Fold this protein.
Amino acid sequence: MTPADCLIWTLRASAHPGRCRAGWLVVLLAVFPLLAAAAPYQWQNVAIGGGGFVTGLVFHPTEPNLLYARTDVGGAYRWDQTTGRWNALTDWLGRDDANLTGIESLAVDASDPQRVYLAAGTYTNPRVGNGAILRSSDRGTTFTRTDLPFKLGGNELSRGNGERLAVDPHQGRILLLGTRSNGLWRSDDHGAHWREVTSFPAIARSAQASAPAWNGTQQIGIVFVQFDARSGRAGHATPVIHAAVSTTTGPALYRSDDAGQTWQPLPGQPRGLRPTRMAQGSDGRLYIAYADLPGPDSMGNGALWRFDPAQRRWQDITPVPQSSDTQGDGFGWGGVSVEAGNPDVVMASTFNRFGPHDDIFRSTDGGRSWAPVIAGARFEHDNAPWTAHASPHWIADVQIDPFDPRRVLFVTGYGLWASRDIRAADDGQPVQWWFQNDGLEETVPLDLVSPVQGAHLLSALGDIDGFRHDDLAVSPLQYAGPRLTNGESIDAAALAPSHVVRSGTVRHRLHNEVRAAWSEDGGRTWQTFVSEPPDGEGAGRIRIASDGGRVLWHTLRGSHWYTDDHGRHWHAVRGLPDSAVVIADTRTPAHWHAYDAASGALLGSDDGGASFVADHVRLAPAPALTAELRADPQQPGLVYVAAGPQGLLRWREGELQRVAGVDVVHSLGVGKGAPGGEVASVFIAGTIDGIQGLFRSDDGGARWLRIDDAAHQFGQIQRVTGDPRLHGRVYFATGGRGIVYGDPQ
C-alpha cells in the first residue's frame, strides 16, 4: 500500500484497520497541510429555482406541514416549514445507483409520521438495473434499501400518474406496490420483503396496459393504489382498496373488499379512457381523472368522473369540454384533490392542454359547477424570475393541504406553485400563487464554464437554455438574447473572458433559426451567429480560442468547422477525426489540443485550430469513450486527459504520463492552484485505488483528497469545473439535482 493509498483510505475513514501502520504516520503528517486545507467540503446548489418535472406531492394526513415531493430524475424532497425550503432526501445515492434518482412513487404511513417510502427507479430499459424500495423511519434522513426483482420507470410515460405505492393507514407494516410490467406486489414487514399478489387481474401485465412512446411502446401497468381509510380500524388490515390499470380496452378500476386478497372491477365504470389519478372525499365518493394517454408527452382526450359507492352511481363531472378548434388540440385530466374537511370542495387540473393553456378548476358543490383558478391569477416570480416566461404546464398533480384548506399546491414541468389563499376564487377574486420551489433544484445541466473574470459561472441547461450566475444564491434570468430550448455547450475565452459562445437546440424550429450565439460582455447579452456549419444541426460542442478570435464547432454529425467572423464563413478543420474532442490552449491563441478516443490519437494545432497533427504518443483505442481534456492554465503546454477506464493522463507534446492510482475518470476539471503552487488544482469524478468519489489534487495528481462523502454523492456527477479564481472551489453538473458547487471549510 503506497503513501497515497494510505492517505485516501484515511480520509475515507475506511474500515481497513491495520493497513496504514505506524510507519505511514510520518507520511500523513507530511501531507497534513493538504488535509487541513481541504476537509470538509460544504455543498450547495447553484440557485436556479426549479427547471424539472415534479411528478407528485404527498401530504401526511395526520401531521401539519409534513409534505414530500417526488421528481422524475432528481430524487425526492421533504418540505421544511421553518426554513421555507425543500430538503433533498436522495443525495446519498452515488454513480452506481444513479438509476434510483428517478422516483416512481412515494408513500407515507398515516399511523407513523416518521415513516416514508420511495419506489425508486428511473428507466426500464436493458441498460439499467432493477428498481428498489427505499424505506425510512426518520422522515427521509436515512434510508434502508430493498432491491426489487423488476425495473421501475420514474422518467417514463405515466410518471405523473399515481401514487403506485401505498401504505395501509391502519396497519402500517402492510404496503402495496403497483408495477408497470409485473402486476401488484405486497409487503407485510414495512417494505423489507415483497411478494406478488397473484390474484390481481392479469390485464395489468398485458399489452392492453401499454401506450405508444417515441421509442416504441411502453408498458404502463398499474398507475395508482389507494386504501380506503374509512373502511378499517387501527391495528387491522384495511379491507377496501382501489387500484387502477392504465388501459382503454377493458375495465381499468378495481376494488378489493378483503384487504387485497381478491379483486373485482367497479361496475358501470367508464370505458375507453385511462385513469390517471383518484381522490376520495370524507363522504366516500371517488373522483377519478381520465385521459386517452398516460402523459406527460401527449394527450388528446379526457374526462373527470365521480363515483358514489353507496349508490353505485357514476357521473361525468368534467369541468370544461374538449377543444373544438380545427387543430384538434384535445387534452387529458391530471391531478384531482378533495378538501379534507369538506367533501364538496374538489379541485382538478387539465393535463397537456395547450389551447389556450393548462388550468385548474375548483368546485364547492361536489362537481356540479366549476371555476378556473389559473386564468386571471397572479403569479409571484421574485424567487425565480425566469418563470415569468414559463406558463404552467404538465399539471399532473394538485393537492389541498389537509390542515390548511386555503393552501393548494400544484406541480408543473418546471417546479411547483402554492396558493396564498385559494378561497379567493370562491369570491370571484384572482388567486395569488408563489413559486414554492426553493431548494428543489431539478435542472439537468449539460455544460458549465467558470471564466477568469465576470460571473464565476455560466451554464447551459436542458429545457431552460442557461444562465449567467452573478450570485450563486440568487435565481437569475435566462440569457438575454436568442433563446435556446436546450443549452448544450458553452465556452469562454481564457485570456479574453468577456468573449463567450454557446450552442444548443430549439424545440420548434420554424424559420431555420441559427442555434448558436456569442457574447462580448461575459454573457450579459447575446447575438446569434450568422449561420451554422454546412452540416450543422445545432447542439454539438462549441469552443472559443483563448483570445476570443476564433470559434470551433464540433457538429452533431461529427465534423469540425471554424469561423473567424461569427458564422459568416465556415471552414473545415483539417486533420481532425470526426470523433475527436477539442479544447483551446489557455495561454496561446494559436495552440489547440485534441484527443480522439476511437483511435487513441492525441493531436495538436499551431495554426489556431485550422489544422491538426497527431503527436507520436498515443493511447489505446477506446471507441465508446466520452473523453474530456483540460489545459493547465498555470503550466504552458500541459494538458490533462480524462480517458475513462484508462485513467488520468498528463500530456505535453511528445510526452504522456499516466497518473498513478487513478483507475477511472468520468469527468475532469481544473481550477486555481493552491497558494504558492506551480500547477492548477485538478478535480476528478472517478475511482482512485478502488474508491469511487470526487477528488482534488493540488500537486498534479501525486496526492489526492476525496472531497465528497457518503451523504453527498449526487448520483451521476459530470461536467466537473474548477474555479480559476477561488482555490478549492468546484462546480459540477448532476443528472437531475441541478448544478452543485463546493468550497473547502
